[in-house]
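In practice, a research group might receive sequence data for several interacting partners and want a quick structural hypothesis before committing to experiments. The following worked case mirrors that situation: the sequences arrive first, and a predicted assembly follows.
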Amino acid sequence: MVIRVCPCNQPSSILTANKPDRIVLARFVKSPRTIGSITPSSAALGRVLSEKIDPAGTDRVLELGVGTGSITNQILKRLASADLLTCIEIDKNMCAQFRKSFPGIQLLEQDCREIETLFSGDKISNIISSLPYRSLPQSTTDAIFEQKISLSNSQTIISLFTYDFVFSNYHKRYPIRLIDSRSVVKNFPPARVYHYAI
Ligand SMILES: C[S@@+](CC[C@H](N)C(=O)[O-])C[C@H]1O[C@@H](n2cnc3c(N)ncnc32)[C@H](O)[C@@H]1O
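A structural hypothesis for the assembly, expressed as tokens:
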């Protein structure tokens, strides 16, 4: 029997995995580098990733690489209105599952390398990403960071996580400032969240 670890960190059988978990696992088998994980992120990771959203004064929030929506749940808890959130995901199966779970939420089936023009002129408060930057080709990661920086103003917070134990040096590679970082052990695998500003 194959053992998996679900987002609540309880081991259980893959035979009893729910549909979002099975979609994530199937995608990992097919394309490990673009998903970067065998299981959806935990609620704990979602809470830390979305902690910089100001519930009282937010403009648009972008979520990049929503998958089946495990982080989305936590973002929505911090927003005065669900209309403030725009989600972006490249994979059509993930999008289909996301639409079932979040019927009213704006979802763009889109490559994050091509989002800048969609929001030009919009004020973006937070860009929250769970894209697997370390396993994507460097040119893709560079292109996505370029888009995120173009969409940001001095108030925008860019939040992301990695699974690495080595501290991230994104703030050395790109013109962004690290403003906060902490680890989240209640996730499989444990992750580190980074919040940046430009
Ligand atoms: C690690 S999964 C995160 C899923 C979910 N947010 C979570 O935390 O469980 C990364 C997601 O990013 C998506 N993705 C990868 N490259 C992308 C790209 N260039 N544009 C949009 N989405 C992308 C993948 O399809 C996958 O759903």
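Before designing any experiment, note the following. DSSP finds seven helices and nine strands in the chain. The first strand starts at residue 3 and ends at 5.
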